[in-house]
Amino acid sequence: MSLLGEIERNPPAVEDRGVLRFITAGSVDDGKSTLIGRLLHDTRAIFEDQLAAVARASSKRGQDALDLSLLTDGLEAEREQGITIDVAYRYFATPRRKFIIADTPGHEQYTRNMVTGASTADAAVILVDARKGVLPQTRRHTYIAHLLGVRHIVVAVNKMDLVGSDEATFECIRRDFLAFASALGIVDLRCIPISALRGDFVVERGELMRWYRGPTLLAALEEIDVADEADALPLRFPVQLAVRPGAGTDFRGYSGRIESGAVFRGAEVLALPSGRRTVVKDIVCLESSLPVAVAGDSVTLTLADDIDISRGDLLAEPTLPPRAAKSIEARLCWLSAQPLDARALPVARFVLKHTTRSVRAKLVSLNSRVDVDTLERHTKPTSLAMNDIAHVALALAQPLFVDSYELNRATGSFILIDEASNQTVAAGMIDG
Fold first, then answer.
1. Pick from 96, 200, 184: nearest CA to 144
2. DSSP one-letter code for 41
3. Mapping DSSP to helix (H, G, I), strand (E, B) and coil, where does residue 134 land?
4. Where are the alpha helices (DSSP H) in 227-291?
5. Which among 269, 18, 304, 27 has a CA at the least distance from the CA of 158?
6. Angle of helix 167-181 relative to helix 136-147, nearest 10 degrees?
7. Contact of 45 with 92, CB cutoff 8 Å
8. Looking at the predicted structure, is the pLDDT value of residue 7 above 50?
């Protein structure tokens, strides 16, 4: 009897471990899309019409078996080329928790899309083709995931069926990966041998690799502890909208998403940039009054005092406020296909978007560029190409209220927009 069949017959009383957001990443053709298709298929998260559509698409490609990778490769260009370009999000659940998966691109050309997927992830599944071992793009994606604050990384050594399920091959890849990753100081790192095509050690254990005694990939993801650390951080509430319904009412509220911390009726808050302190009078969500709201909640706050607050302002914990900064140092991932020439910095103009606030900014200097293969820093680079990661200094026209990215991902991150083309050219993480 299958594991899922037994669960359906005798559903266990298990703890709901909440939502896990994770990405899959690795080199081209490591099997990321097939792995997600396998997870969706074996946890029965696919509707019959979706399966029928995949069956038709598989037949058109001359394949007799169901090509599970097509469940996530939704773009026509991806199906034609057999690679993943965009970030495809999928959802499924088990009795223990809910999952949001982001299938991120493997090709180096689309590393910038991987940055998007990793920026909100709790965990990363890094795939390695058992026939190829650890490749430069594997190291690149691991470094970016770690750089973006992903604390839990699972290395899934895929296509073990194509190397005869050889334990020595798995151990060699595991040692190579750990040799690279040891310099990063990853908090939670584990390696699991799998076959996404056959399904071995993805949801169920399967017939291959009886020498492996550890959990399946799904069981490992279910075990990850992602107690929402954002709840325990100081309050950060960027204001998205000042709500004033108009004539006939004196209601005035401030809408937004609580990025970290918690707020309750009667709590004192600090309004920035004014520096005024006030008290939360009420918390409104969908026309209902709440006694408390926590990180991730979208609410409208009403305040005891009449303070001039507008979009881009911030309500914060008075005893642990963010720092005001007109200059910042940051790690930057250059996203634009147009390289950045260091000689053009004096005339280059950008808009820096941080939470709900946008200010004009200048890149003052390119301090160093990181070689993601060796983790070495090359000082004073003359240019940045697409996907390069660098340490930079920026000057701002107006102050921002920031935390370091290491402490708070929401108030420690930003994007840079080219003022002339209006294109997003970089994503940044503020240093402490």
1. 184
2. H
3. coil
4. none
5. 27
6. 50
7. yes
8. no
The token pair at 176 is: 């190579």
Q: How far is CA 278 from the centre of its chain?
A: 34
Mean pLDDT of 175-200: 92
- Domain span at 172: 3-227
Neighbours of 351 (CB within 10 A): 16
Structure tokens at 278: 């006030």
Which pLDDT score, from 0 to 100, does residue 114 have?
72
Residue 28 and residue 106 in contact, taking contact as beta carbons nearer than 8 Å: yes
Q: Looking at the structure, do residues 59 and 94 belong to the same domain, yes or no?
A: yes
Coil, strand, or helix at residue 395? strand
* Alpha carbons 182 and 43: distance in angstroms, whole number: 34
d(CA 227, CA 17): 9
Examine the domain organization and report whether 35 and 152 are in the same domain: yes
Local structure of residue 167 (DSSP, 8 states): H
Residue type at position 298:
S
The residue among 268, 290, 316 that closes a domain is: 316
Tokens of 122: 């709790």
Kindly report the CA angle at 187 between 182 and 193, in degrees rounded to 5? 75
CATH of the domain at 256: 2.40.30.10
Rounded Cα–Cα distance for residues 290 and 413 (Å)? 29
> Where residue 158 sits, what CATH number does that domain have?
3.40.50.300
Q: How far apart are the first and last CA of the chain?
A: 53
Name the phi and psi angles at 375, rounded to 5: 65, 15
Distance of alpha carbon 410 from alpha carbon 120, whole angstroms? 9
Where are the strands (E) in 105-205, listed by range? 123-129, 152-158, 188-193
**Domains contained in the chain, number:** 3
Residue 24: exposure state from Cβ atoms within 10 A (0-12, 13-18, ≥19): buried
What does the pLDDT read at residue 405?
A: 93
The predicted-structure confidence for 102-154, as pLDDT tens digits, reads as follows 876 655 555 666 777 778 889 999 999 999 999 988 888 888 888 888 989 99
Judgement on whether residues 246 and 186 belong to the same structural domain of the protein: no
Last residue of a domain, one of 316, 339, 358: 316
Residues 212 and 236 both lie in one domain: no
